Amino acid sequence: MSTIAQAKIFFGSIEENKTQQQERKSPFDDSMVSLAPVCDTQDTIKALEIAKNATKTAANSSLSQRILWLEDVAGKLDAQKEAFALMLAKEVAKPIAFSRIEVERCVETIKITAMELANLHGQTIPTDIMPSGKKTLAYFRREPVGVVACITPFNFPLNLVAHKIAPALGAGNAVVLKPTPEAPMVAYMFAKLFVESEYAVKDALSVVYGDAEVGSTLVKSDIPRVISFTGSVPVGNIITKQAGIKKVSLELGGNAATYIDKSANLQVATARCAFGAFYNSGQVCISLQRIYVHEEIYDEFAKCIAKETQKLKVGSPYEEDTFMGPLIDEESRNRAKNWVESAQKEGAKVIAGGEEIEGIFPPTVMADVTDEMKIICEEVFAPIVSLVKVPSYEVAIEKMNDSPYGLQFSIFTNDLSLTQKFIEDAQCGGVVINDIPTLRFDIQPYGGTKLSGIGREGPRWALEEFTEVKSVVICQ
Q1: Which structural domains are found in the chain, ordered by start?
Q2: How far is CA 184 from CA 21, 25, 207, 291, in A?
Q3: pLDDT digits (tens, 9 = 90+) for 69-87
Q4: Does 377 participate in catalysis according to the annotation?
């Protein structure tokens, strides 16, 4: 590139640069696509202090102003959709068609948040319901927590930022955002829309870049009352140990699974499973990783999904019809190769993909996978899906639940009784019927059980995470 975009730090409404800059290179062609300032502990402390000082202004801002603020940002983001989509393609190599979809979803997330703010209220409580009580005017109300620290990942570096900062700011908080180091310019462009809006609450949003040092400073500080993190289980575990007494909302890893019943529509199931396994290069917490197939249709399903997988175009993220680009970095690519090699040594077979194509690890289907294999026990976070033959639904659901993760599961079936049973049996945060577990609507509650996290995202539920309940009793 002849011109490199330079992100800057936002300390509230003040934009600053730093002498030390970090290069971001494209995962696709290794070209330099952006520069970001390198932040340290002192930068983080400064941002936290600015946020702390802005809490009163933010809490006292009118609801109408905050709604106008979100609507203004959504409108400007929509108008600049192509610029944001192109930057996503550059920084994280997301195919341009899917980059546009992420921008569109981000616009919708902000709009939904603005609508949900009308429902951010309490209710009256009948204090004379028991003999020991008495008649009063009692109610509870929701108030902003003060400062929210948001830490976001690389796989959806725009929409997952919106899922945190839009509800946090909309609820009347001040926010310090630490975006992923892999997409600094996308985060800068997005934050700029908030900071420069005519409806902005002064100093309510700060942005600092960095990795462990910056993140640890945010988490350990007594200033934030909520830490909202999306990322890996090991980092989530560190956060819970470092955070102290404050609310922690964690959206962590997954090992998403589906069951293909013998009554399922195979054409629909194979097409959707190929999409769910390889969308975003498999770098999604709810990427389809395990497919349990009834033994009566296993061979046919395996043949069909291999065929569907081979149809997917792999290559340049800048081409309109590319379905899948490269993994985020060389380490992830090497890890994907090791997953496949390990499974093959244990007896699994590659029936699609498996070998690198011009530096890109391709969509890969592994057949004859068994419970003992490492590839099915841990989160792969790569474009690899495993097929497991099962004799019945009962065996499938037992295997699906036998995981330390519980984010989202799904089932393909035309048996209504099986559908009802699956909804009750699945030990996870979300279930999907006749589609992939990768399906997520931004308006829904989203989060998991077990190692998959604590708390819920989705505008309505995030607003609850970023507010506190105050009980009020007025005696006569």
Answers
A1: 5-252+452-474 (3.40.605.10), 256-443 (3.40.309.10)
A2: 11, 11, 10, 35
A3: 999 999 999 999 999 999 9
A4: no
